[in-house]
Amino acid sequence: MLAFFRKFWKDQDTVEKKFFWMVLFIEVFVTWISGVFTYFENLSLWAYLSCFISCGIVCCLGVVAYKTKEYGICYMGSFYTIGLVLMPAAFFFCGGVKSGMPMYSSALMLVGAVAPVSTKRKLIAFIIVLLWMGAAMIFSLSGTDLSKKLLTEVSEQASALDVVVSYIFMSITIYCIGAFIVRAYANECDKREKLVARLDYLSKRDYLTELYNRRYLIQYLESVVWAQRDKFYLVMYDVDDFKSVNDTYGHFFGDQVLCDLSKIILDFVDEKNGECAVRYGGEEFIYILKGDSEVEAYAKADKIREAVNMHQWEEAPMLHVTVSAGFMSCRSRRGFDHKELLHKVDELMFMAKSKGKNHIRNVSE
């Protein structure tokens, strides 16, 4: 049985569903235990019958909700049942304002306020129940013959016991509802933060290699490189004859080659120093690096080319992959234009491919 309830609770995949079943359980427990106490307090037959009838109605609404998944309708059905049937009846049969019924009524309003339905429906239900309960209280205090006849007189001892029990039950109810709402809110905030972080990560990253994407590259060039453009260099790598790799070994293995090349590039990237690796598109990669001189930066860029040239794939030991690249400094006397920079380095990369491949072309060459 315990395993069933654990599985059932786990299957409730939204906060609204979990809250519905928690409140429903509290309503069933409170109506049932109230019926038991009114019986042992030796109140009128109608007192504990109203409790048990309300308990039965709430249980039936739970079955309907389980079958139909109409949680909002069933939730409001239980609210109306307790507010319009149980509370007024129990109010008269359990001693009126001298009993714990006012506390139950106040707790019921809290249950209605957090109902998983539209604000308009909640407000209508709140007004109806409030007016009905208010009318019942005013009528009980009116002192008319009819109100005296309907109102059950209870002993001071029974009244005190009812108030204490009501206080305990309502305190537990309010605590459980409040704790659930706070925890649910915290969980939703945590999920939202993780989702925002994930979306932010995906907006900057390439889906296959998880390097930065072209959108982030433009932003990076304008916000970071622009401020220190004399220290940055840009390299655009392109895999030589990549189409033949896909045709020979298949596109799935081709994707693996791109991922492995990305890891090789990342091994050289010093992100703490402001460097950045990007999948520019297809089989093209861009490496933004820092160097004290152009010679030093070029040598570092060429080490990546050599690492790719030396890399071997266990799945295809006969495969030999090379890259051609364009290399240039990010400094410019006429100001910084990322479009012009990318266009020039792209031209250098194509010149490298046209001059035999597997080497890096710079402006001086």
- Main β-sheet, spatial strand arrangement: 2-3-1-4-5
Strand content: 5-15%
What are the secondary-structure elements, in order, as H or E?
HHHHHHHHHEHHEEHEHE
E-strand count? 5
Please state the overall shape, judged from the principal axes of the Cα atoms: rod-shaped
Gyration radius from CA atoms, angstroms? 37 Å
Largest sheet: 5 strands, mixed
Discrete helix count: 13
Spans of at least 5 consecutive residues whose pLDDT stays below 50 are none
In helices, the fraction of residues equals 55-70%
Description:
The protein has 365 residues and is of the alpha+beta class. The chain contains 13 helices and 5 strands. Helix 4 runs antiparallel to helix 5. The model has no long low-confidence stretch (mean pLDDT 84).
Notable features of this structure?
single chain, alpha+beta, 5 strands, 67% helix, rod-shaped
List the helices and strands and how they pair.
Elements: H1 2-11, H2 15-40, H3 45-68, H4 71-93, H5 101-113, H6 119-141, H7 145-150, H8 156-204, H9 214-225, E1 232-239, H10 242-249, H11 251-268, E2 276-281, E3 284-290, H12 294-310, E4 323-329, H13 338-354, E5 360-362
Parallel strand pairs: 4-5
Antiparallel strand pairs: 1-3, 1-4, 2-3
Helix pairs in contact: 2-3, 2-4, 2-8, 3-4, 4-5, 4-6, 5-6, 5-8, 10-11, 11-12
